[in-house]
Amino acid sequence: MLFKVQYQHHKKYIKHNGSAYDDLIKDVKQKFGISPDHNIYLADETGTEVDEDVFADIIEQKPDTLWTIVDAVAITDPPANITSPSANETETLSLHSVASSSDTQPSDSDGPFLSPKRARSVDHSQEAKEEHFYDAEGNSGYIAWRLKTVQRNNRCSRTTTSEATCERRGPGTQRAFFTSEMQLEGDRCQEAISFLKHCLDPEQVAAKMKSTFQYRQKMIHDPEKSSSVISLFPRFLDTKGLVLQDFELLFGVETASKLLEKWDSCLKQKVIQEAKALTQSLHLSCLIQSAELQCNTSHGATDWDSEMSSLLLLVYLLPPPSSGNKKVVKISVREAVDRVVKFHKSCCSFEEVLGSTQTTQPYILAVGTSKSSIHEYYIVLDGQLIPCMAKSSLSAFDELFKTHYVFGISYDAALHNMFTFLQTTIYNIDVGITHESPRIGDLRAKVLN
Question: Is residue 89 a part of any domain in this protein?
């Protein structure tokens, strides 16, 4: 990828693979001969500073941007011979008060009041005195410096406040229980757990699972016990509906029904329209075409049905992060889609697909004769199959989301934006107190309006 970069009126093209902010900064320093220890940042064509967390979004939307390299020192250090207001003074700058103060000649003890970028002779003309405070030609002077400092401090303050308020809340957060069901404790709870290991009657299993819900949630949020939940409660592996039941006990029926109520009625078509505005690839175009088909029988053997295709468009609209944590392996959107659902031909052995799976994150295993003709859905968790109550791809997707909360499993890093969007926009869980990327807020505004 070629980037157009300008530094001190010199423009150059820089060839850079990928869109990692830190790597581009290193390439820029090398290209322009800037010291590696020198602190610089990128600004777009409007002069707005571009942070690392929005850089990837901007180059995707405006790939032809002329990037300007700015010396960070120039706006963080006050100009020479200028006294900065004290820390206790307000951060709001009054242009009227500054203009008024320019009528007063600085005293000899204060030294000459000069422009930060170039020294000028002090005279008593109105033009010279005003230039001390603002040089329109060089965009310098006290006013320019002070405004930049105030904006930078305000941005840091907003970031600190946002990080303090918006936490990484999600499936791993321990919560107060929504259920009013009587919960067993002590020996009675242990008896119920022992009973569950041998009972196969669905009604009795459901009742005992309800009464041991609190015990199970405490296990899930205990790092030493969380990995043994399924072995202690093996009915998850042969009784349908237990994941749905635990999620309802955790959040209530109203929250549990959100996706099934909202998707077809008001969200699906808007998601398809937003996906059409993206740069089209062969796989994305196929998903959009499949999502718009109403009759599943017209699908090809390689296409998911309309519901699943429309849901998978969310991965394209909220793709894996392209920069940030360098320890996380970056994957393509197509690879991220495969982490949501996999197809398994009904005539083949489960051992083959489970043995080839490397991820420990839950995903949907759709079993049928073709992707558009699925007979059974499972959630694969740690190499084990949890049967879904679902008979449709939308319901299976609903169970996949809920599995994260029922077992306290963090979202897959590549799918974090997609699942967080579902969490806050559709299920309305931890709204306003969950950290979200700007892309999530933008998509929510588009699909809900």
Answer: no
Q: Which residue has the tokens 């979004």?
A: 57
Helix, strand, coil shares, percent, the chain, to 5 = 50, 10, 40
CATH of residue 46:
3.10.20.90
Full residue range of the structural domain in which residue 130 is found: 95-165
Query: Do 245 and 266 sit in the same domain of this protein?
Result: no
Domain membership flag for residue 81: no
Q: Which of 105, 134, 165 is the last residue of a domain?
A: 165
The secondary structure of 374-388 as a DSSP string is EEEEEEEETTEEEE-
Contact by Cβ (8 Å): 330, 365: no
| Residues 197-214 pLDDT 10s | 999 899 999 999 999 999
Alpha helices in 141-251 (DSSP H): 142-165, 186-196, 202-211, 213-220, 229-232, 242-251
Q: Is the pLDDT of residue 119 over 50?
A: no
Same domain, 267 and 394: yes
The pLDDT of residue 178: 67
Give the model's pLDDT for residue 326: 54
Of 53, 95, 48, nearest in space to 321 by CA: 53
Three-state SS sequence of 261-303: HHHHHHHHHHHHHHHHCCCCCHHHHHHHHHHHCCCHHHCCCCC
21-45 CB burial, b ≥16 within 10 A, e <16: beebbebbbebbebeeeeebbbbee
Quote the number of domains for the chain: 4
Residues 380, 423: Cα–Cα separation, whole Å: 20
Q: What is the pLDDT of residues 51-81, one digit of tens each?
A: 777 777 777 777 778 888 887 654 444 444 4
Q: How far apart are the first and last CA of the chain?
A: 35
CA distances from 79 to 41, 86, 139, 359, 445 (A): 19, 15, 13, 54, 42
- Domain assignment present for residue 433? The answer is yes
Closest CA to 185 of 166, 209, 205, 211: 211
According to the model, what pLDDT value does residue 372 have?
A: 86
Order of all β-strands in the sheet with 373-381: 341-345, 363-370, 373-381, 384-387
pLDDT given for residue 299 in this prediction:
46
Alpha carbon 288 to its chain's center? 23
